[in-house]
């Protein structure tokens, strides 16, 4: 006898780098576990409509703007669930309306919570390592540690780049970031394996909501409040904010300094990586200034 198939709408609610999580009661399916807001898609509803309704009923807030985040199919012993994931930011003026027992958790903390098995792919999507090494050498991918991503900044022709990428396993590519121009011309299998797609600020500002590939992480290069707000408005996953300090590679760029960096990073609901004259040893300092992680070239 075939298993029943259930469509579930799930909300990833963000505020200043944290994610909203609740607790599933014992009487519910997969009970006594943590959960994201959401529930069954009812007849006549789209998944996004169901997500909006469930968040209003369960959390107590009405969110207007949503981004399609991912779609996951998971088979349990008794049922097959199609998870339709949507992402939204929660404005500060709605925080006091959130009902109990919903609580905010840092992305690192999500790995320690007891979620249903179907949510494991969601947790992997939400987690970002804390360091990004920027290099023109793809072989550096072989030497980065587990908590470091490699952004391969290359001007190589697409065919040659795709051939080089073919020498690396899907597991290795899960630590790689490449720019959108290269990513768009890669074979589908390589596109799916790569950790994230990088957007230069001009690329970012030319994109609109609905133009990002659902299920693919996007890392946006930002230098000011306008670009940060736009990255969030179109559904990006994380931000590179630069330059913190003047660097030899961009001596003409006006440095933010930690004070201005913190003022901008604090406004972001997405993870922010500090870039420009910072070192791996600056991670703790950067996190005190509202950064999630650090990125760089020479010092990394």
Secondary-structure map:
Elements: E1 5-15, E2 18-24, E3 33-35, E4 38-40, H1 47-58, E5 67-75, E6 80-89, E7 103-106, H2 107-110, H3 120-126, E8 131-135, E9 148-152, H4 158-165, H5 170-173, E10 176-179, H6 180-183, H7 188-193, E11 196-199, H8 201-205, E12 217-222, H9 225-234, E13 238-241, H10 257-265, E14 272-275, H11 283-288, E15 293-296
Parallel strand pairs: 1-6, 8-9, 8-15, 9-10, 10-11, 11-12, 12-13, 13-14, 14-15
Antiparallel strand pairs: 1-2, 1-4, 2-3, 2-7, 5-6
Account of the 3D structure:
By secondary structure, the protein is of the alpha/beta class. It has helices at 47-58, 107-110, 120-126, 158-165, 170-173, 180-183, 188-193, 201-205, 225-234, 257-265, 283-288; strands at 5-15, 18-24, 33-35, 38-40, 67-75, 80-89, 103-106, 131-135, 148-152, 176-179, 196-199, 217-222, 238-241, 272-275, 293-296. The protein has an eight-stranded parallel β-barrel with strand order 8-9-10-11-12-13-14-15. Strands 1, 2, 3, 4, 5, 6 and 7 form a seven-stranded mixed beta sheet that branches. The chain is built from eleven helices and 15 strands. It is globular, with a radius of gyration of 20 Å.
């Amino acid at each position: 006898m075939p298993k029943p198939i259930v469509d579930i709408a799930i909300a990833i609610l963000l505020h200043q780098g944290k994610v909203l999580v609740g607790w599933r009661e014992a009487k519910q399916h997969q009970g006594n576990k943590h959960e994201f807001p959401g529930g069954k898609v009812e007849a006549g509803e789209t998944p996004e409509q169901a997500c909006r309704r469930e968040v209003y009923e369960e959390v107590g807030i009405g969110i207007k703007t949503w981004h399609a985040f991912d779609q996951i199919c998971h088979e349990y012993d008794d049922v097959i669930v199609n998870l339709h994931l949507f992402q939204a930011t929660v404005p500060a003026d709605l925080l006091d309306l959130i009902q109990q027992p919903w609580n905010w958790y840092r992305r690192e903390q999500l790995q320690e919570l007891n979620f249903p098995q179907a949510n494991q792919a969601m947790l992997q999507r939400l987690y970002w390592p804390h360091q990004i090494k920027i290099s023109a050498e793809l072989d550096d991918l072989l030497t980065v540690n587990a908590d470091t991503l490699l952004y391969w900044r290359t001007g190589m022709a697409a065919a040659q780049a795709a051939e080089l990428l073919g020498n690396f396993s899907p597991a290795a590519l899960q630590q790689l970031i490449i720019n959108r121009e290269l990513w768009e011309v890669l074979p589908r299998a390589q596109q799916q394996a790569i950790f994230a797609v990088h957007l230069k600020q001009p690329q970012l500002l030319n994109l609109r909501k609905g133009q990002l590939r659902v299920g693919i992480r996007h890392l946006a290069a930002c230098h000011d409040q306008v670009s940060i707000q736009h990255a969030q408005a179109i559904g990006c996953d994380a931000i590179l904010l630069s330059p913190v300090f003047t660097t030899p590679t961009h001596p003409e760029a006006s440095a933010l300094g930690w004070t201005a960096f913190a003022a901008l990073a604090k406004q972001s609901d997405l993870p922010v990586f500090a870039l420009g004259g910072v070192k791996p040893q600056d991670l703790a300092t950067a996190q005190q200034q509202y950064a999630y992680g650090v990125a760089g070239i020479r010092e990394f």
